[in-house]
Design brief:
Helix content is 23%, strand content 19%. It contains 5 helices and 8 strands; from the N terminus they run E-H-E-H-E-H-E-E-E-H-E-E-H. Strand 4 (128-129) and strand 5 (132-133) form a beta hairpin. Helix 3 runs parallel beside helix 4 (146-165). 43% of the residues are buried.
Length: 215
């Protein structure tokens, strides 16, 4: 966001910058739900994680969904432990800007969250989303179970031809097991609730994802 980086070079574990043992965020109250941002996953709830570009707008998409218990933004799918925002924006940590979602599967299914993911951004743009460019803006689904991984892969296969028919390119979304999640700084958390007129560079393609549609 804000055009802070143009760096799109992929880094490796050996070339990523060193991090720190101390977490960047150690406490905080969710600006929308009022719960502890660092709360554990409640019994019966599940978690999901998505990268769709600037995490400010992405988090707002998910906190509005009935059945979502809480959301938080952070950095994942990289190498630098407890990276700062500035380090992630340098492109030297390997991280993606992500939103972690804790949800009640009896109210909202993982498939429904995938539909929001696919329709909420352009998953064909590689290391960018709109005007935001850099590896931290790549499209990604980070899964917490074999069932999530299978659902994510299936949805990618199903949505690809629909996007191609609408004139878009191939999907570039990475689908990987969720690894370490590092909380972003407190001012990033629920940013667009604290700043309703703030920047949001997220925009979908207008193409309907076939999840939930009759076959």
């Amino acid at each position: 966001m804000f055009g802070l980086t143009k760096k799109v070079t992929e880094v490796t574990k050996d070339t990523a910058i060193a991090g720190r043992e101390t977490p960047i965020l150690t406490s905080g109250v969710h600006h929308v739900f009022g719960n502890d941002i660092l709360m554990p996953v409640p019994a019966g709830a599940e978690e999901a994680m998505f990268g769709m570009g600037c995490f400010w707008g992405v988090e707002r998409m998910f906190w509005q969904i009935p059945g979502v218990i809480t959301t938080m933004v952070g950095y994942a799918a990289g190498y630098t432990e407890n990276a700062t925002y500035e380090e992630v924006c340098s492109g030297a940590t390997g991280h993606n800007e992500v939103v972690r979602v804790i949800f009640d599967p009896s109210v909202v299914s993982y498939a429904e969250l995938l539909k929001v993911f696919w329709e909420g951004h352009d998953p064909t743009q590689g290391n960018r989303q709109g005007n935001d460019r850099g590896t931290q803006y790549r499209s990604g689904i980070y899964t917490f179970s074999d069932a999530q991984a299978e659902a994510a892969r299936t949805s990618k296969v199903d949505f690809g031809p629909t996007l191609l028919a609408a004139g878009y390119g191939a999907i570039t979304t990475e689908i990987e097991p969720a690894g370490a999640f590092y909380y972003a700084e407190l001012y990033h958390q629920q940013y667009l609730s604290k700043n309703p007129d703030g920047y949001c560079g997220i925009g979908g393609t207008g193409v309907t994802c076939p999840i939930g549609l009759p076959t």
